[in-house]
Amino acid sequence: KLASREFHREDTVITVKGVKIGGGHLAMIAGPCAIEGESLLMEIAGKVKEAGANILRGGAFKPRTSPYSFQGLGEEGLRILRAAGDTYGMPVITEVMDPRQVDLVERYTDIFQVGARNMQNFDLLKELGKTRTPVLLKRGMSATVKDLLMSAEYVLSQGNREVILCERGIRTFEDSTRNTMDLSSIPVAKGWSHLPIIADPSHATGKPDLIPAMARAAVAAGGDGVHVEVHSCPEKALSDGPQALLPEQYARLMEDLRQLAELM
Ligand code: PEP
Ligand code: MN
After folding, report:
1. Which domain holds residue 259?
2. Which of 8, 24, 122, 251 is 20 to 30 A from 261, alpha carbon to alpha carbon?
């Protein structure tokens, strides 16, 4: 299989606008869950950049549980994300939900994000496989690590060799966290695959006070980066406000991660 260590012994390193991901290079992805407006995103982008983030995130097409919840700004959101990334010199990542959106989203983004709910949207994965834009593939909430790697295979087999895996928590009986972060999936995936794997402690825990510990744990476990939702006014956020870190909390987390990386 193309994702396996047997096929490719060395860790895959993906370079996006000068930012390397994998093989010891950490992707520090940060930004709001949803793009809500230009001035707000510019403010958050400036702050996460200053804290040390190297990739800016923000959703323009949001996969909400309820159809009555904010669905995202669509193309206007993509334009704002691109502008913020360019202003602060950060590559950008945003979610694509449908094969018909691939061309549009590719015009604005540097990395495609496939959300947990679409990990097995095989038509989407095949369409992304035909592009040469890196794909961050999030683990489905009831998918095994093997399922995740098989989904990566859908992208790789179409010719796009740049896939980043992401552990974002799975559904279990435990209800103290939004999902259960499967920390062991990081060394498991690293053993089986050469692809980079990062962690998303924001969606995994759903709780700001648990995010720093799980982010440190992910890096200590060999993860290739951390994906964190940051908002300057979580109470007013249109999506995932309760799990957002304030920019200053994110800055403290980044400081801890830098110290940890030095120890390792
Ligand atoms: C997100 O990153 O905002 C998101 C919807 O994540 P997930 O697909 O992991 O739920
Ligand atoms: Mn979110």
Report:
1. 14-263
2. 8
63 lines ligand 1 (CB under 6 A): yes
User: Rounded to whole angstroms, how far apart are CA atoms 203 and 148?
Assistant: 17
pLDDT-derived band of residue 247, with 50, 70 and 90 as boundaries?
Answer: very high
Residues 229 and 178: their CA atoms lie apart, in Å, by 14
The pTM (predicted TM-score) of the whole model is: 0.98
pLDDT score of 264: 84
Q: What is the DSSP letter of 246?
A: P
Q: Which two tokens stand for residue 34?
A: 């949803």
**8 Å CB contact between 64 and 76:** no
Would you say residue 1 lies in a domain? no
Domain count, the chain: 1
Q: How far is the CA of 206 from the centre of ligand 2 (A)?
A: 9
Indicate if ligand 1 lies below 6 Å from the C-beta of 32.
no
d(CA 229, CA 215): 12
Residue 5 lies in a domain: no
